[in-house]
Amino acid sequence: MNKKKMKFAVGSGVIVLTIIYLVFTGVSKTSTYFLSISELLERGSAIHGTGIRVKGNVVEGSIKRDKIKLLADFEITDESEKSIAVHYKGVVPDLFKEGIDVIVEGHITADGVFQATTLLTSCPSKYDEAEEHPTASS
């Protein structure tokens, strides 16, 4: 191999390795665990500070909001009837209310409160509405 081909091969190798490194570190930093509330509680302190995504239903009567500071504190529960407290700072989605399914993304703190950085609401399905109000057949 002459010098020109050797430089090209080394340069190409460095570029490929850099791309692989960037993809690997990007995926590992942005990946989050998707856990149920039961799984989250079972892991205990081992999961503190780790990025987590949790789905649950907003507990009736648990919402406390400060619209000026953009704070929302509430509880979510799942089918196991276990619940966790959630603290969220940011703009709350319009559909957010008691009894609705939400997905929160963030981390659990040492005192057991889920510090959410993202709050998503599930859109109600038009089929759910149709089941609640069946049409009369003629």
- Coarse structural class: alpha+beta
Largest sheet descriptor: 5 strands, mixed, barrel
The pLDDT mean sits at: 82
The number of strands is 7
> Span between N and C termini?
85 Å
Strand order, main sheet: write it out: 2-4-5-7-6
Q: H/E order of the elements?
A: HEHEEEEEEH
The domain tally reads 2
CATH topology of the largest domain: OB fold (Dihydrolipoamide Acetyltransferase, E2P)
- What is the level-2 CATH architecture name of the largest domain? Beta Barrel
Can you tell me the CATH superfamily of the largest domain? Answer: Nucleic acid-binding proteins
Specify the helix fraction band.
25-40%
Question: In CATH, what is the class of the largest domain?
Answer: Mainly Beta
SS element count, helices: 3
In percent terms, what proportion of residues is strand? Answer: 25-35%
Q: Which properties best describe this structure?
A:
single chain, 138 residues, alpha+beta, OB fold (Dihydrolipoamide Acetyltransferase, E2P), 2 domains, five-stranded mixed β-barrel
Summarize the structure.
The protein has helices at 3-30, 37-43, 126-132; strands at residues 33-35, 52-58, 64-66, 71-77, 83-89, 101-108, 114-121. The chain is an alpha+beta fold and 138 residues long. The longest helix has 28 residues, at 3-30.
